[in-house]
Design goal:
Blueprint: H1 18-30, H2 44-55, H3 58-61, H4 67-94, H5 99-116, H6 128-141, E1 149-150, E2 153-154
Antiparallel strand pairs: 1-2
Helix pairs in contact: 4-5, 4-6
GO biological process, one term: transmembrane transport
Organism: Sesamum calycinum
Subcellular location: Membrane
Length: 155
């Protein structure tokens, strides 16, 4: 029999306890890429810096940012603003709120993303269903015709 046609021996996996199996499944489901692998075998100062970079990713990529990239970022910002500002004002009206509250929802999350370094996985802003639910909740609690101010805020 030639060496290429030899039968290979297969190793049968040993039966694991329920806890180990659950732990492995949980880790593979939620942390399949092992987000803490960069921290292993690092000195404490390096772990601290990596932890800060994990919270503020712009500290990592900010060093590579060039002025030539700003043009694309500016065009993207103007495009998003031209779409989001009217939409957010409309959603604020849909929720029976003043337009400035809709503008807060279009301004604060992107500002937070700029500080925190990005948001490739989540989008925050008002949507029609949330606006309708919020408006109906507010109407149950506060009559906008009777109460013109709440804690000094004029509605």
């Amino acid at each position: 029999m030639s060496p290429t046609l030899r039968a290979q021996r297969l190793h049968v996996a040993t039966k694991q306890s329920l806890f180990k199996e659950f732990k492995f499944t949980f880790k593979e489901t939620f942390f399949h890429d092992d987000p803490l692998r960069r921290f292993k075998d690092q000195p404490r100062s390096k772990q601290l810096w990596l932890g800060i970079q994990a919270v503020f990713p712009n500290l990592e990529w900010g060093r590579r940012y060039e002025l030539s990239m700003f043009k694309g970022d500016l065009i993207a910002g103007i495009t998003i603003a031209s779409l989001c500002i009217p939409q957010d004002i409309g959603y604020a009206k849909l929720a029976n709120m003043d337009p400035q509250f809709g503008l807060y929802s279009s301004f604060i999350p992107p500002l937070n993303y700029a500080i925190m370094g990005g948001s490739r996985d989540i989008v925050i802003g008002p949507v029609a269903v949330v606006s309708l639910l919020f408006g109906s909740m507010l109407q149950e609690e506060i009559d906008p015709k009777k109460n013109t101010s709440i804690n000094g805020l004029h509605l």
